[in-house]
Specification:
Order of helices and strands: EEHEHEHEHHHEEHEHEHH
Strand content: 15-25%
Number of strands: 9
Radius of gyration: 17 Å
Helix content: 25-40%
Shape: globular
Strand order of the largest sheet: 1-3-2-4-5-8-9
Structural class: alpha/beta
Length: about 250
């Protein structure tokens, strides 16, 4: 296992479930799944912090393939793997299934992936990637910023231990743990990623997710599931509802 990546894990045996968080978050977003996985997942599970997030070191440059390569080393060669990724994590899961890594991906579930991007959105992301990390005088201010960036505002209290994983204290001030450079990863080429996947893919979204629409997912041609009543961070809003996405792979 690569020493650099911070990884939370549990269970034993196969299949191996890899849970990948979205841009700006950490593996702690899967905390509510732990008791459910103990009852409902037969094998081992891993929830890493993606490079440049939480306790994992940054990359010199961010691409979906580069992020996938960093995750690939966590999985024992030949072990059957189910990837469940949220947003950016879903794209990384697709990249892992594309044949460039030795990981034996059996299935990919992409939850809440933003599949349509405007030029303005991409330009704004590139501008954010060039900015130095903002420093805040207090943890509370940094926590509020972290919750906004990760999309977790209103879902986790600022004092939640999961928020600590997304923060760093630096010379008496506070910053987000994430490397701003991660914003430069860009938009995924979803038709290519889906065409290259060696494993079956399911795309899922919360009914109220503003990042995508049922129509956008349907046009991609992969099986799609809508989780009623949930939003972009469906896996945090309702672990009980969103873990049903794994039912076919247990």
């Amino acid at each position: 296992m690569e020493a650099g990546l911070r990884v939370q894990q549990g269970g034993s045996g196969e299949p191996v479930l890899v849970l990948l968080h979205g841009l700006g978050a950490t593996g702690d977003v899967w905390g509510g799944w732990r008791p459910l996985l103990a009852r409902r997942w037969p094998g081992r599970w891993l929830a890493p912090d993606l490079p440049g997030h939480g306790g994992s070191p940054p990359l010199a440059a961010y691409t979906f393939d580069g992020l996938a390569a960093a995750i690939a080393v966590l999985v024992p060669p030949g072990a059957p793997v189910v990837m469940l990724g949220h947003s950016l994590g879903g794209v990384v899961g697709l990249a892992l299934a594309g044949g460039r890594s030795p990981v034996a991906v059996q299935a990919v579930i992409g939850l809440g992936i933003k599949v349509a991007w405007t030029d303005e959105e991409l330009d704004r992301a590139q501008a954010l990637a060039r900015q130095p990390p903002a420093l805040f005088p207090s943890r509370d201010e940094a926590a509020a910023r972290y919750l906004r960036v990760s999309g977790l505002a209103g879902l986790l209290p600022a004092g939640d231990p999961a928020v600590d994983a997304g923060l760093r204290e630096q010379d008496g001030r506070w910053r987000l743990a994430m490397d701003p450079g991660t914003f430069a990863v860009g938009a995924p080429d979803m038709p290519r990623l889906l065409a290259q996947s060696r494993a079956p893919v399911i795309l899922a979204r919360g009914e109220h997710d503003p990042m995508n629409t049922d129509g956008q997912l349907a046009r991609l041609g992969a099986p799609a599931i809508t989780l009623a009543g949930l939003g972009h961070n469906a896996h945090v809003e309702s672990p009980e509802e969103s873990i049903t996405l794994l039912d076919d792979y247990r």
